[in-house]
TrEMBL record:
PROSITE patterns: ABC_TRANSPORTER_1, ABC_TRANSPORTER_2. It comes from the Archaea. One of its GO terms (molecular function) is phosphate transmembrane transporter activity. Keywords: ATP-binding, Nucleotide-binding, Transport. It catalyses: tungstate(in) + ATP + H2O = tungstate(out) + ADP + phosphate + H(+). The complex is composed of two ATP-binding proteins (WtpC), two transmembrane proteins (WtpB) and a solute-binding protein (WtpA). This is Molybdate/tungstate import ATP-binding protein WtpC. One of its GO terms (biological process) is phosphate ion transmembrane transport. It comes from Methanococcus aeolicus (strain ATCC BAA-1280 / DSM 17508 / OCM 812 / Nankai-3). SUPFAM superfamilies: P-loop containing nucleoside triphosphate hydrolases. InterPro entries: AAA+_ATPase, ABC_SmlMolc_Importer, ABC_transporter-like_ATP-bd, ABC_transporter-like_CS, P-loop_NTPase, PstB-like. PANTHER family: AMINO ACID ABC TRANSPORTER, ATP-BINDING PROTEIN-RELATED, SPERMIDINE/PUTRESCINE IMPORT ATP-BINDING PROTEIN POTA. Its EC number is 7.3.2.6.
Length: 240
């Protein structure tokens, strides 16, 4: 796999303080890349830059070898699923179809895409249910479907299973893995769940206090961490 996303010296300031400090790493096309770290490490701030919601104060960001310009063409390549997704007060079908409707796709195309993605997430029989009435795990699947139906090249997820029970967490993880196999989507997720990192990711970056202190294949990070803070985080000496 070739490098698809590249960050160089990404720095973000807030009140004169560096909340992101010289972030650098590469992500390959079609891989699952996890950013792990304790709460407050800067993971969500970094995801918002990757999603082109916020701009860094310094640094450059490349997708597919092209420098990101924070315009509509790049934004169409990327979607972000937040930890607590908001459901529109409408049916599951309409929630998922929203992104296609505002892009003015034909009705038959929208119908086919929504039905396909509902099958992909295992909610084919839920299309007429009111989305706000669903359980937490079902809402997370709808949010994931809403992101995937527009066929993003990059899917970003912020603590995708933080509020879910183990069975729903595994269900979401399986959908993520199936998404890579089916669509070759590049997936970046932020989490403090070490077990999830080990189950899901191909590569991992450990983030601490706004810095990436170690990055590599997940196997190497967990079997032979180089940085002392990474060792402590993995061993449980460092709390979330």
């Amino acid at each position: 796999m070739k490098d698809y996303m590249e960050l160089k010296n990404i720095t973000k300031l807030h009140g004169g303080r560096k909340v992101l400090n010289n972030i650098e790493f590469n992500i390959k096309k079609g891989e699952i890349f996890c950013i792990m770290g304790h709460s407050g490490a800067g993971k969500t701030t970094l995801l918002k830059i990757l999603a082109l919601i916020n701009k860094p104060d310094y640094g450059t960001y490349f997708i597919g070898g092209k420098e990101v310009k924070w315009d509509i063409d790049f934004r169409r390549k990327i979607t972000l699923v937040f930890q607590n997704p908001v459901m529109f007060n409408s049916t599951v079908y309409n929630n998922i179809a929203y992104g296609l409707k505002i892009r003015k796709y034909p009705k038959e195309y929208i119908k086919k895409k929504v039905e396909d993605i509902l099958e992909h997430i295992g909610l084919s029989n839920y299309k007429d249910r009111i989305a706000k009435s669903l359980s937490g795990g079902e809402k997370q699947r709808v949010a994931l479907a809403r992101a995937l139906v527009i066929e993003p090249e990059v899917l970003l997820m912020d603590e995708p299973t933080a509020n879910l029970d183990p069975s729903n967490s595994i269900l979401i993880e399986n959908i993520i893995k199936d998404t890579v196999k089916k669509y070759n989507t590049t997936i970046v997720l932020a989490t403090h769940n070490l077990f999830q990192v080990k189950r899901l990711s191909d590569s991992t970056a450990h983030m601490y206090d706004g810095k990436i202190i170690e990055v590599g294949t997940t196997k190497k990070i967990f079997s032979n961490p180089k940085h002392e803070l990474t060792k402590k985080f993995i061993s449980g000496e460092m709390f979330y």
